[in-house]
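user: Please supply your own:

assistant:
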Amino acid sequence: MSSIEAQLTTPAQREALFGNTGRAMGDAAEFIEFRHIRNCHAADPAYGAGVAKAPGIDLEKALASRPDDPMYGNPLAPLPA
């Protein structure tokens, strides 16, 4: 969270945001979850970490997954049907 967002929200509100965002990923393909976490992390590292933590996704694994993302042309990564 940016310092302004952190000042304007309580820890409980931030946890609710992380949990809501994490749950909203639902049963998306793993590469989609990882991509979303990377995008959240790019916007704000604390936000990305919170979104990853909520559904129990390993943040470091998500951050390291970019080369495996089919969006970036990895022919070995299966696209969802």
